[in-house]
């Protein structure tokens, strides 16, 4: 009689961060296998840095098999652009830049003033870059805890041939089964860190010791108070008449257009201190620091319907 050998395997218990990591890597790999021309958005912000880190893990030791794209408003914090370029060189990824300024110069985008916020204008640059690049899947760093509009998203979110989103026409995602079907000219937005919270992101980046732009940690900066936000004084945000410039210890919870992104008072100079601050915060990073998002609950949903992330 042939003897059979029983192999007993011990169950491996994953931590909450390990589970989130595994889920995100699974999504990234699935999309890379299913779609012909994916691209990953990269702003230099913490969420996009996390996505690139996860993509590197997903395909290690091979390089990331798709390009990254930065929608450049032209009003960026210089520290973030320097960080972006350094990351691209270090990881050997291909960078595509969708420039809002180029579209302004060509007359495709009209602005009333050179220093107005360009956050809304990112949609035009993004949709044109997707069309010109023939991308059928676009990874974004949206998380469900950021605002009500992003909480309505699926992990794979369908966009029509105009790049528009219909929140009432979402595909079911039962048992982690994702539907990526689309016709030519349509595309899918992919949110691999949808189930992460801001605190999860910080805890994971700390555990992995991932580098971030220095503005995410407390530093001294000249700021003025404007509409309840601490705005950095720079070439994109001149001092308003009658405003008082103060030198304060601040950090940024999110990275965006320098004309609309405020800082928060902070003494958190390292990961441990940032995690402690984030754990007790009851306001989302966008609600606390994005001037163009926080005054209307419908603002983000309207922008997403037009094609924004």
Helix content: 25-40%
Rg result: 21 Å
Distance between the termini: 64 Å
Look at the helices and sheets and give the structural class.
alpha/beta
CATH superfamily assignment of the largest domain? HUPs
Low-pLDDT sequence parts: none
Number of helical elements: 10
The biggest beta sheet reads: 6 strands, mixed
pLDDT average, as an integer? 88
Per CATH, the architecture of the largest domain is: 3-Layer(aba) Sandwich
Number of strands: 10
Look up the CATH topology of the largest domain: Rossmann fold
Can you walk through the features of this model?
The protein is an alpha/beta fold and 309 residues long. The mean pLDDT is 88. It contains ten helices and ten strands. The chain folds into two domains: 16-199 and 299-306, HUPs (Rossmann fold, 3-Layer(aba) Sandwich); 210-289, no CATH class. It has a six-stranded mixed β-sheet, with helices on both faces. A four-stranded antiparallel β-sheet has the order 8-7-9-10, with no helix packed on it. β1 (38-41), α2 (46-59) and β2 form a beta-alpha-beta unit.
Topology:
Layout: H1 16-34, E1 38-41, H2 46-59, E2 68-72, H3 78-91, E3 95-99, H4 100-105, H5 122-133, E4 137-139, H6 148-151, E5 156-159, E6 187-190, H7 198-208, E7 219-226, E8 229-232, E9 246-251, E10 264-265, H8 271-280, H9 285-289, H10 299-306
Parallel strand pairs: 1-2, 1-4, 2-3, 4-6
Antiparallel strand pairs: 5-6, 7-8, 7-9, 9-10
Helix pairs in contact: 1-2, 7-8
State the main characteristics.
6-stranded mixed beta sheet; 10 helices; 4-stranded antiparallel beta sheet; 309 residues; Rossmann fold; 2 domains
């Amino acid at each position: 009689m042939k003897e059979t050998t029983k192999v007993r395997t011990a169950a491996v218990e994953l931590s909450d961060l390990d589970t989130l990591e595994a889920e995100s890597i699974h999504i990234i790999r699935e999309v890379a296998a299913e779609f012909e021309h994916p691209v990953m958005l990269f702003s230099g912000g913490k969420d996009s840095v996390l996505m690139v880190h996860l993509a590197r893990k997903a395909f290690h030791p091979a390089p990331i098999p798709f390009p990254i794209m930065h929608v450049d408003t032209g009003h960026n914090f210089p520290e973030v652009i320097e960080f972006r370029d350094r990351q691209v060189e270090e990881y050997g990824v291909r960078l595509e830049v969708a420039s809002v300024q180029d579209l302004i110069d060509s007359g495709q985008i009209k602005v009333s003033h050179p220093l107005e916020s360009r956050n809304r204008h990112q949609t035009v640059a993004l949709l044109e870059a997707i069309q010109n690049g023939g991308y059928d899947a676009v990874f974004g760093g949206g998380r469900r805890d950021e605002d009500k509009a992003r909480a309505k998203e699926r992990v794979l979110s369908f966009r029509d041939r105009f790049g528009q989103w219909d929140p009432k026409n979402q595909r079911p995602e039962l048992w982690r089964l994702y539907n990526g079907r689309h016709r030519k000219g349509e595309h899918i937005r992919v949110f691999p860190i949808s189930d992460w919270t801001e605190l999860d992101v910080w805890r994971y980046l700390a555990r992995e010791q991932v580098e971030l732009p220095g503005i995410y940690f407390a530093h001294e900066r000249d700021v003025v108070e404007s509409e309840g936000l601490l705005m950095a004084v720079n070439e994109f945000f001149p001092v308003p008449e009658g405003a008082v410039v103060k030198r304060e210890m601040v950090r940024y919870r999110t990275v965006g257009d320098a004309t609309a992104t405020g800082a928060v008072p902070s003494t958190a100079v390292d990961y441990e201190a940032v995690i402690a601050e984030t754990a007790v915060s009851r306001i989302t990073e966008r609600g606390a620091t994005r001037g163009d998002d926080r005054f209307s609950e419908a603002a983000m949903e309207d922008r997403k319907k037009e094609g924004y992330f």
